[in-house]
Amino acid sequence: MNIYLFELKNQWKNTTGWIIIFSVLMFVLCMGVYPIFNNSLQDIVAVISKMPAEFTKAFSFDLNSMVDFGGYYEFIFAYFSLMGAVMASSISLSIFAREKKVKCTDFLLTKPISRQWIFTSKFLSGLTLIAIFNIIYMVLSCIFGIYFGKSLEEMILASSMMFLTQFFYYNLGILVAIFSKKIRSVSNTASVLGFIGFILSALYNILEIKGMRFLAPLKYFDPIQFFTTTSNEYMYMLTGIFLLILFLFVSYAKFNQEDVKAV
Asked: pLDDT value at position 227?
């Protein structure tokens, strides 16, 4: 319990900062930008049409779907998911790589606590923070979605994709932290993990190679499936869920069996 509470206290300020940033951005983009976008659609179409097709695909511009709030939500989710991935990765890297960074892993493991309990306490502390963040994110998404004509069920399901995206990157961050000899910069490593996913998503959008989507983690959990009856996303969702479970089990096994060099 001490480890759990310590990690919560240590990461709470960082998580609060992310909550504030997301809340402000969601309000600005949904209540400020979207009405203007809807009222100026013809002018925006004229500007976007002059841009290279590859550019618009890479940055998820689909004006046909963005007329509806569901399509607009998918568009902003492409960037929110990137931020959420960086946030989740930074939490897991901070929690699981701290002892390696300050070279006190051997000291932690000499305590009368099993490795299994150490891992579980650390894991649950980060998961708690992500859950709190996603409750707030879901509430805001539902408020804005219902205001623009979407049902509560649609918005709950669509916003839940943020939790799955973050859970994927949270477990990926744990895997990287445990298998790395040392994490020099948590923020840099988390940013790299997030932007690699974003670049792979952009490449998939440009090339439109169906099988390539399995390599783009930010595309595993797409909210658009809940706003249309023609989308079939379940294979990608199952892939993402399988991988995040695999990351967790591999990390757990490595953490419990790894030899630690005394400093």
From this structure: 80
Q: For residue 101, what are the CA distances in angstroms to 15, 36, 178, 213?
A: 21, 47, 12, 34
Nearest alpha carbon to residue 143 among 129, 162, 156: 156
Q: What is the identity of the amino acid at 8?
A: L
Please report, in angstroms and rounded to a whole number, the separation of the first and last CA atoms in the chain.
26
The residue extents of the domains of the chain are 2-257
Can you give the C-alpha Rg of the chain in angstroms? Answer: 20
Q: Spell out the long-range contacts of 38-45 with Cβ–Cβ below 8 A and sequence spacing 24 or more.
A: 38/67, 41/67
- Rounded Cα distance, 166 and 49, in Å: 34
The CA distance from 22 to 37, in Å, is 20
**What is the torsion angle, in degrees rounded to the nearest 10, for the CA atoms of residue 214, residue 219, residue 221 and residue 226?**
-120
Whether 130 shows a pLDDT value over 90: the answer reads: yes
Distance CA 95, CA 122 (A): 6
Tokens 């757990």, residue? 252
**What's the pLDDT tens digit per position in 18-33?**
999 999 999 999 998 8
Distance CA 231, CA 233 (A): 6
Are 239 and 220 spatial neighbours (Cβ–Cβ below 8 Å)?
A: yes
Q: Give the tens place of pLDDT for each residue, 28-65.
A: 999 988 888 877 777 776 776 676 666 666 666 666 66
Packed helices 152-179 and 234-257: angle between N→C axes, nearest 10 degrees: 30
Global pTM value: 0.90
